[in-house]
Amino acid sequence: MTLKTLSLEQKHVDQGARMAAFAGFNMPLQYSSVKNEVLAVRNEVGVFDVSHMGEFFVEGKDAHAFIDHIITNDFRNAGDLKAVYSPLCRDDGTVIDDLIAYKLGDQKVLICVNAGNIDKDWNWISKQTEEFDIELTNRSESYSLLAIQGPKSEAILKKINILPKKEFPYYSILETKHNGKELILARTGYTGEDGFEVFCPEDYATTLWDLLMAEKVIPCGLASRDVLRIEAGYPLYGHEIHDGVTPLDSALKWTVKLDKEKFVGKTALSTYQRKLRLIKIILDKGIPREGYEIVLENDKVIGKVTSGTMSVVLGQGVALAHVNPELFSKETEIFVNIRNKKYRANFTSKAFVSGGHK
Fold it and tell me: For 9-53+141-231, which CATH class?
């Protein structure tokens, strides 16, 4: 299969990035080392090219009502120029994808979806439009997306005159211009740190990248991005959430607003009894990897790791795992089976690393 290329691919190659296939794209996996890139985001500022993500626009008088209908979270009552994270579910409550919907105006919404689900999401969302006065467009091929993340990200974007001088709260969105080019600026990200995501025309991505490099922003790849989101305890489509689970199976009950009058999946989710429980665990020794079994002292299997890594910040193995809710409680002594040896796992209800997002 021929991989799609990013508009910044040559920049990544010139800077020594190790490239790899991901969701049909040729993506930068890492530049220096995963450790260096993680610490850059935790302590200073890093930039990720996530231009593989999909961008759909919903415009028209029913734009807000339409989004509120197709997602489980409450979009209608979100403030002006705010972003809302939500699962996108079928009638039976299972997850099609997770996304962020951005309220750009009274009749305009941007939806950012996962790269591997662009076609699936587009086909499903398109079929839901019949009763709504909207225009739905797929502009995924028109935008590049840079995620500038870390405690110094605000200062950097102010220095290069992208960030407005007025207050710009967490999970906000703004249409703006930079050097005459129209940009969409969001205070969002998936690292747990303060940060921003800049949607820009593909032909402006190189200019923006060069401005960031001139300010010594550290280029980061998918490998460090994965460590960062696991440290923050964030789920990822294809791991913690997928076609076979509902949001209630994956610690996303907070995104399911059953007090809304109507949304796709509400009937099913209103009576659903979770089949799985998503938990966070820390190991004293060993590195948990996806697919490793979660077992009891007697070797009974009660679940499996959905995402695992060695935390750069903690220096310990950390993981998200799906377990049988009938066989697990906070007091249950559990282990991760790593190459036929049991490693004690400690349950935690908090993020492994508390980032600095606003």
Answer: alpha beta
